[in-house]
């Protein structure tokens, strides 16, 4: 199960905030679509109901398959124009769980405001439990975003420079998280640095994160590199093989022979 899918299910089990945020956006969109007055950007009040029949504060359960598909459909609809709403929700959140939900949804929107929020969260953690190591490890890989139908988060140059700094950390979790993040920043320089990590980093998780991101940002040269990649003959072999095959398939679709 992709990391984000499980991550999001946990939100739904613990709190209705993520569902409430998304349904608020749906209500706003429905209101505009049907010619009504735009809703204020404040927190959901529970008094407004969309033409679909759901209230802003309705919660969705992962055990309800219909509600789950509705949630995923809402996620796929998010765009940069909604990011400011989730930035506001992040700033007003009362605890880590609510901030995590708002940050995830903001990143699902993408765009400059989402990049700026993530930079701020990485540079200025609100609690020790929300430091860059923990935050990046929770973000998941770019290919996992695709797996649940959410557009991969596009990393701008400013955020990429922060990730590049983290690649030099002594903390393997931080390096792996930075490598995951760079899967959203396609460039020749990024691909080259990820190849270095994939080939020489002492930590297997970092190497696998680099391989996964190479599948997102690599070119035909990268494809040849991954096909010839030496899989370690130890207890990580199956994980490496799975990660490699996923990255190779993605590049083969992009560069069919």
Helices and strands, with pairings:
Elements: H1 3-14, H2 17-33, H3 65-77, H4 83-92, H5 96-109, H6 112-123, H7 132-139, H8 142-147, H9 157-166, H10 172-181, H11 188-200, H12 204-217, H13 220-227, H14 237-254
Helix pairs in contact: 2-5, 4-5, 5-6, 7-10, 9-10, 10-12, 11-12, 12-14, 13-14
Supply the key terms.
about 260 residues, mainly alpha, about 65% helix, disordered N terminus
Q: How would you briefly describe this protein structure?
A:
By secondary structure, this protein is mainly alpha-helical. The chain is 64% helix and 0% strand.
Uncertain regions: pLDDT < 50 for 5+ in a row?
Answer: 1-5, 31-62
Helical percentage? 55-70%
Number of strands: 0
Total number of helices: 14
Query: What Rg is obtained from the alpha carbons, in whole angstroms?
Result: 19 Å
Order of helices and strands: HHHHHHHHHHHHHH
Measured distance between first and last alpha carbons: 30 Å
Main beta sheet? none
The average pLDDT value, as a whole number, equals: 78
**Bulk shape:** globular
């Amino acid at each position: 199960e992709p990391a984000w899918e499980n991550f999001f299910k946990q939100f739904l089990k613990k709190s209705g905030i993520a569902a409430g945020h998304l349904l608020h956006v749906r209500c706003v969109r429905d209101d505009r679509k049907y010619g009504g007055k735009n809703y204020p950007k404040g927190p959901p009040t529970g008094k407004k109901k969309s033409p679909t029949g759901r209230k802003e504060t309705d919660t969705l359960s992962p055990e309800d398959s219909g509600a789950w598909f509705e949630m995923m459909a809402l996620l796929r609809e998010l765009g940069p124009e909604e990011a400011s709403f989730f930035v506001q929700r992040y700033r007003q959140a009362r605890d880590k769980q609510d901030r995590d939900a708002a940050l995830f949804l903001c990143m699902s929107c993408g765009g400059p405001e989402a990049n700026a929020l993530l930079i701020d969260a990485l540079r200025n953690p609100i609690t020790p439990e929300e430091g860059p190591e923990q935050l990046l490890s929770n973000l998941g890989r770019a290919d996992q975003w695709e797996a649940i139908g959410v557009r991969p988060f596009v990393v701008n140059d400013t955020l990429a420079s922060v990730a590049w700094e983290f690649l030099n950390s002594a903390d393997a979790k931080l390096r792996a998280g930075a490598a995951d993040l760079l899967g959203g920043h396609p460039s020749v320089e990024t691909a080259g640095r990820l190849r270095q990590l994939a080939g020489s980093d002492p930590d297997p998780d970092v190497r696998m994160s680099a391989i996964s991101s190479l599948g997102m940002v690599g070119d035909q040269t990268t494809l040849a590199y991954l096909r010839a990649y030496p899989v370690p003959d130890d207890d990580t072999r199956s994980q490496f093989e799975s990660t490699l095959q996923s990255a190779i398939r993605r590049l083969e679709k992009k560069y069919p022979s």
